[in-house]
Amino acid sequence: MENAGRTQPVLTAQAAGLVGCRACGRVNPQRAKVCARCGGELCPNDPAALQRVWAWLAAGLIAYVPANIYPMLRTSTLGRTSENTLIGGVVELFSHGAYGVGLIVFVASIVIPVAKFIAIAYLAVSVRRPSVPGDHKRLVLFEVVEFIGRWSMIDVFVVAILSALVQLDFAASINPGAAAVSFALSVAFTMLAAQSFDPRLIWNANERVHA
Amino acid sequence: MSGQTTIDPGELIACPVCDALHRDQTVPPHSTARCVRCGTVLAAPRKGAMTQITMLAATALILMVAAVVFPFLELQARSLSQKASVLDAVLAFSQGLMAPLSLAVAFLIVLLPAARYLALIYALAPMALGWHPARHAKAVFGWAERIKPWAMAEIFIIGVAVALVKVAGLARVELGPAFWAFSALVVVTIIQDNYICRLTVWKTLEERSRF
């Protein structure tokens, strides 16, 4: 596909007084509300839309607190009941020598959620400051956050399978803890925060400088 | 661009990620068109993609039925044994206040993936056969694209793997036919999603709606 103006700085739909559709790529007149090709709703790349990102991000952060405090799993073996939090589960895996799986769970349930909060906040702040360099690096960061976010749900599924499978009456049984709900909510809210972020804003900030 | 051009917006496409304008040209099958600025894939058409996507979605749908109906996992420890189906994993949270999470898990691992296969078949089967698009085909395909991040079948199967490692020391686990059906479904879905080129699908739907 040939670029419309390769020698000059890239011309964007917004700069040309048009609105590009983020679903199908169709270029529409500025005042159009609905895309002519796919019928989807058109939204101009307006920094005001960042408010939604912040709102979802705050909801995700709030839900992440009880996810760490309450137990994720209740295990009872021969009448003894123990409760495992997110961190507790990782520690137990390591103490059993399951380093590979322990590492996966640690990365999925602790490292990725925290890194996501920081990354989304950084992206939302950076598009307000025109002097932030590294458009491409920020785009890669956004794509990584968007791709990896849903994988955090793995913890909830592990709890679901363990609770369904390990129900051997008195000998051993595993039941879900309250943290499963808040963890699932936290992951969903963070996904929504990433989806509300409009990547076109990354490039917008620099255009205002060049203009 | 030089002066006031009278280019039809329908001949341009805007990059969905960075808004850069490109002249819309026919991309030959098996080649990839990328955005000049951010490198996002704009179009990657494949020969016979519509037929492939429809067939793969139908396959995945049948496998999903098998995955829900057949036994999934069986746990054996001494004289005790416990069977768990995919439905049991969904119902793991059904007690007390966690019931909404059961519903959410049902949507994430069974209902949304199945609905997405159905939506793709509905929107793309007429395209594969060279027919006029079905009623509301655009809205249905747009919906299938929007729910894509929430269809988490592949994350569930990795969660199963993690859960199996966790109980491996505790008891013996037999893998039922549903486990293999679900694994196959994940592979089929990944191949299917590889065939979907959004721009090509939207343009085909648009062109076929004209006459």
TrEMBL record, chain B:
Question: Is-annotated flag, keyword Transmembrane helix?
Answer: yes
Q: Which UniProt keywords apply?
A: Membrane, Transmembrane, Transmembrane helix
Which parts of the chain are coiled coil? none
Q: Which residues cross the membrane?
A: 53-73, 85-111, 117-134, 155-173, 179-201
Q: One Pfam family, short name please?
A: PqiA
Q: Which InterPro entries does the record match to this protein?
A: PqiA-like
Keyword match Ligase: no
- Signal peptide per UniProt: none
State what protein this is by name.
Paraquat-inducible protein A
Q: Which organism is it from?
A: Ruegeria marisrubri
